Fold this sequence. Notes:
By secondary structure, the protein is of the alpha/beta class. It has helices at about 10-15, 55-65, 95-105, 130-135, 135-155, 185-195, 220-240, and strands spanning about 1-10, 30, 35-40, 75, 115-120, 165-170, 200-205. Strands 3-2-4-1-5-6-7 form a 7-stranded mixed β-sheet, sandwiched between helices. Strand 6 (about 165-170), helix 6 (about 185-195) and strand 7 form a beta-alpha-beta unit. Helix 2 (about 55-65) crosses helix 7 (about 220-240) and helix 5 crosses helix 6. The longest helix has 20 residues, at about 220-240. The chain is globular.
Amino acid sequence: MKVFLLMGQSNMSGRGELNESRLPLSGVMMWKNNNWLEAVEPLCADPRAAMGLAGEFARLFVDDTKPSHTACIGFIGLAVGGSPLSDWEPGGIHYVTAVETVTAALQASGAPPCELAGILWHQGETDCSEAHLADSWALRFARSMNTFRGTLADLGFLPAQDVLPIIIGQLGTFVAKRENLPFYTIVQEQITKSCAHVSNTSLVAVTGLSDKGDNLHFNSDSLHLLGERYYNAFKQHSSS
């Protein structure tokens, strides 16, 4: 089973409409309550999580692989709404939780054979609030991801730290309208720049995507499109 980690904040955990979810689907699993279960949204423990982009990602993955076995793709939902990047840096609360959760999921007794396949990341809105957070985003993200992948390699979950691909999405362009997030442009530039600091990383554009009326969260249709773009980025990255 190919396992993907859902990391970041609310646009990864999702704020779409649950009745528009692509899940459940045959062959798609999720790690929840210390067990691998049939995947249903929300996939993340974030208390406000709803439909995210992972359902469409999974649908396309299943369509492409046409698996003959029961479990072909699994998600470990780690994203937490409102979380700043500092929480995902080494020693941060979500960084520590991510290592512990991934370890438990991959070592679970009775689990299908698992292989870490990628990190799906979307985060940055919270760091648009202050200049020093925005200016340092790319370097802090690089330190976080390089250390995290190194930790997974040290634990024996990866053959080398740089082999795990990271798919990272831009912030919604509508975030620029929020007066309480004045450094949006800087963070958006930093997200693009981060691909030069972190090996094996692909950037997903958000051109043409819409919010759900709050200038912060992608709506359901846009989450489906974003899931498709994440999958296409992963597929292209994997074949290169």
